[in-house]
Design a protein that fits this description.
The structure is a single chain. The protein is built from twelve helices and seven strands. It is an alpha+beta fold. It has three domains: 2-91, no CATH class; 106-175, no CATH class; 180-216. The longest helix is centred in the middle third of the chain and has 17 residues, at 159-175.
């Protein structure tokens, strides 16, 4: 049976078909060399078109990667299957944010602009799969809808792309009268008129975040830590072992006014 994967065509047989054609397939697929046929775990027979040795950067033992029309199959796997595989080098970066913050190219910016100008987000703030495919295929030289969706989704995950989408959507919101003042008025109306405590508290906390209160508290906390010298930190660590949490909190309130050394001397004189 003829299969197509990544734009390439190749043959895959059932075990019975392979026997009729006189193909001597290997059941121990890990020993296969280039040009050998192997029996897969899902009952198919396919050709191995490449074999390479992989040396991991860690202390793990080296292994081999067998390439079929479906991709690369590492020999440390329990079995081999006649289905699309992620190339090992791509798999190494899977789940890691190594490329998410790379600045977009001119074409990628054009893709985002076309997506935002010609399509609408749903109530969850997401673009539909059809919209992503349409915008990607209209920007790049890509005729495969599946590839267009996958690559378009990967682009949308990047931080710089998300920022550009936010900028585009912000302009559309402003055109509809939903500017900063409108957002403020909506929050104020919600806080003033709602009778639900949780809703009001969440709205107030959100406004507090927008005003930068959390950032200011963090900065103040960081400045307090920076003002403590290395020598003082050692003295504080010695006293910390002797104090309860309540006593420590009382101690820290005195540090700003009396200094750590003065507090420690005062504490020692009472012992």
């Amino acid at each position: 049976m003829e299969m197509t994967c990544r734009g390439k065509k190749f043959l895959v047989y059932t075990v019975a078909e392979a026997m009729k054609k006189g193909i001597n397939a290997l059941f121990d697929w890990r020993k296969a060399e280039k040009g050998d046929w192997v029996v897969t775990g899902d009952g198919k027979v396919m050709e191995i078109i490449g074999r390479r040795k992989k040396h991991p950067k860690t202390n793990k033992k080296p292994f081999y990667l067998l390439r079929s029309g479906f991709g690369e199959h590492p020999t440390y796997k329990k079995n081999i299957y006649a289905s699309k595989q992620i190339d090992y080098d791509d798999r190494s970066y899977h789940g890691k944010k190594l490329l998410t913050n790379v600045k977009p190219t001119a074409l990628q910016n054009a893709f985002v602009d076309k997506l935002c100008m010609n399509h609408e987000v749903d109530r969850n703030g997401q673009f539909s799969s059809e919209d992503i495919i349409s915008a990607y295929m209209g920007t790049f030289m890509e005729n495969n809808p599946t590839q267009a969706l996958r690559r378009g989704m990967n682009l949308i995950k990047r931080e710089y792309v998300r920022e550009r989408i936010s900028m585009n959507l912000r302009d559309k919101f402003i055109e509809q009268g939903m500017d900063d003042e409108w957002v403020v008025s909506q929050y104020k109306e919600l806080i003033d008129e709602t009778s639900q405590a949780n809703t009001k508290l969440n709205a107030i906390n959100r406004v507090s975040d927008l005003l930068g209160h959390a950032v200011k508290e963090k900065e103040t906390s960081s400045q307090s830590i920076i003002m403590i010298s290395d020598g003082d930190k050692k003295l504080l660590a010695e006293v910390r072992k002797k104090l309860s949490d309540k006593e420590l909190n009382q101690l820290m309130s005195k540090v700003k006014s009396d200094g750590i050394k003065g507090v420690i001397e005062d504490k020692s004189s009472k012992v």
